Amino acid sequence: MSIDKETARRVAKLARIAVPDDRLDALAGEFNAILGFVEQLQEVDVAGVEPMVSVTPMRLKRRDDVVTDGGQPQKILANAPDAREGFFAVPKVVE
């Protein structure tokens, strides 16, 4: 498959990308290069290869879903411009 100037214009329009007319030939060339790489990948024999999610076999680290105060409320509130009774104090914005 080969991408011409009109196809590049249509793809740019569908992607909502403003491409000047003088850049359409270059864009078509880039699309053709990408398609060439895809064709090369299709030539690879993958028979007997199991699909994988990652290149390294690993499980995601998990932790218990427990609600805490973070264990350091005084350090957190130390950065607040105004803190009262263990909470951030903000100006009243609704009358």
UniProtKB/TrEMBL annotation:
Mind telling me which InterPro entries this protein's record contains?
Asp/Glu-ADT_sf_sub_c, GatC
Please list the GO biological process terms of this entry.
glutaminyl-tRNAGln biosynthesis via transamidation; regulation of translational fidelity; translation
Q: Which reaction does it catalyse?
A: L-glutamyl-tRNA(Gln) + L-glutamine + ATP + H2O = L-glutaminyl-tRNA(Gln) + L-glutamate + ADP + phosphate + H(+); L-aspartyl-tRNA(Asn) + L-glutamine + ATP + H2O = L-asparaginyl-tRNA(Asn) + L-glutamate + ADP + phosphate + 2 H(+)
The keyword Protein biosynthesis appears for this protein: yes
Name the UniProt key words of this record, in alphabetical order. Answer: ATP-binding, Ligase, Nucleotide-binding, Protein biosynthesis, Transferase
Which terms does the record give in the GO molecular function aspect? asparaginyl-tRNA synthase (glutamine-hydrolyzing) activity; ATP binding; glutaminyl-tRNA synthase (glutamine-hydrolyzing) activity; transferase activity
The record's subunit annotation is: Heterotrimer of A, B and C subunits.
Q: Which PANTHER family match?
A: GLUTAMYL-TRNA(GLN) AMIDOTRANSFERASE SUBUNIT C, MITOCHONDRIAL
Q: Which HAMAP family match?
A: GatC
By what name is this protein known? Aspartyl/glutamyl-tRNA(Asn/Gln) amidotransferase subunit C
Could you tell me the gene encoding this protein? Answer: gatC
